[in-house]
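Narrative summary of target 7.
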Amino acid sequence: MGANMDSIFYVAEPGSFLFKKAGQSVGASGSQQLLLGGRLHVDMATAVNGWVKASTIPDKKSKTRSGFIELSRLSAREQLKVFYTDVGQGDATLIEAEGAIVIIDGGPNRGFSDRLNQRLASLRRADKALGLPARDTLHINAVIISHFDKDHYNGLTRVLNNSDYTFGTIYHNGLPRYGEPADKDLNLGALSPLPDTSKSISTDLRGLDSAQALLDSDELLTADGNLNMFGKFLDAAIKAAGEGRLDDFKLLVKRRVDGPAVILPDTGDDLEFEVLAPLTTTTGGPIRLQAFPDPHDVTATNPHPSPSESHTINGNSVVLRLTYGDMNFLFGGDLNQPAQKYLAARYAGLDGFAADVNKACHHGSSDFDLDYVKAINPHATVFSSGDSGSYDHPLPDAMGAAAKHSQGEIPLVFSTELARETGSGGIKFGHINARSNGHVVVMAQKKEIPSAAKTWYSFALPFAGLFHDDHG
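Modeled conformation, tokenized:
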């Protein structure tokens, strides 16, 4: 197949395969599994009776797989791909669709940066295979940091410092992580009382100017006078902006639950990200967020105990609902039980939080509210966690509740940690894939020992069971 004759197409139907010969059906010898959304290079000159010859993009060893596929199973438009990336104990999600790449969180370490570098290398190999000039940089339309806990943002510092990447807007919840010399409430800002005797917290971080002011204030230092982890992240963002690689840096909140939907701009024509949280404590005036207590401290006689640093930063996570065609995906950061109860009260039952796929809050912590879990009512839930003796996520009650309060007879629960495999020498990371054409979602994770014909365990939603056709 000559490179200059090839066209780029994407697999648009679940259950697709490359076959040795045109006209073959599933189960034929030599058939090779394809995931929805996979890129193929198609030689249109070979089209006969609705079948065409196609090849996959080259792998790291420059090897491709070739065969025949029905043209009706392909689209010239890129489909949705959601990579729930295994970064150990943390969250990092890479989202791709036509004309857009969006990142939600970046994990605690270099794992997400390495994954993104691999993705860019793959795209460069694909371009080269078509005789196209290799792309110099990869543009990320938006980066959303749910909150500034290490396991959600620290891995993005390395990405920001890499000149291979350019960025549209970085969005955040406005709560910086002050250093040891700073005199700040909860290490986050300034607390103020609310009429119900609970408290609100200031949002001291806004745009790039306030980021620079925080760096200049010396309030982001460690005890020995160096920039703390958060300061290093802000420094990387400011340098990326100075190099022309970052367009903007914005506080992201919702002020009115009864107002117009807050939709992220500039994420392509096919992706709609609605901002559901954090909610401001008032609809006008200074932007302040609710301060949350540890739920273990709440009693009937003391419904509003002193707020907790961890519950306030986690409870004000950015919450996004992604709509792609008819399908919805929810991303809730590290929301905890008091925050979920607060959202339920503000949203009168969490209308609008339902989703086909849910990224479980807080890695599978027991700190959740059952009514929140019920309101999402997904077909599939993804837990992102790693081996850490101090957390032990995901915990059995979180997984059990997710499964019980999902749609369908056989709901799906995925775990990046459980999908990881270390027995064959070297770690195969437990990345969980969600793929969609706008009408159906396919969830997939890699087989521990892939065969030539099948690399993935693949589940179309709603999943009716492996043998459901035999019981019709």
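The chain is about 20% helix and 30% strand.
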